[in-house]
Amino acid sequence: MTDETTIPLNTLSRLFHVAVFEHDDTRITQQTLEMSAEYLRMFIREAVLRANETRISRAHDGEDSVVTEQPVSDVLDTKDLDEIAGMMVLDF
């Protein structure tokens, strides 16, 4: 694994227990947590990359500057993530 930020396994375990598992006595193995964390890391990284491509593409097409009459920001916005959300879910 690289120096990229990882999702803490305790946080992921808690998320599974609070939001996913229907029974309190459901258990998850360490290996499954590690694989789930890696999957989510890849999903998030791909979403950010795709959203950034969308933002750059929109800036080159002049959409943002025409609508807002301001320079295009270097910050990803929810509309950038919204635009790629459907394809991300289908691809993953």
From TrEMBL:
GO molecular function list: DNA binding; protein heterodimerization activity
InterPro entries listed in its UniProt record: CENP-X, Histone-fold
Superkingdom as given in the UniProt entry: Eukaryota
Entry's localization field: Nucleus
Alphabetical list of CDD domains matching this protein: HFD_CENP-X
UniProt-listed GO biological process terms: DNA repair; kinetochore assembly; replication fork processing; resolution of meiotic recombination intermediates
Pfam families named in the record: CENP-X
Annotated GO CC locations: FANCM-MHF complex
PANTHER family associated with the record: CENTROMERE PROTEIN X (PTHR28680:SF1)
Protein name according to UniProt: Centromere protein X
Organism field: Cyberlindnera jadinii (strain ATCC 18201 / CBS 1600 / BCRC 20928 / JCM 3617 / NBRC 0987 / NRRL Y-1542)
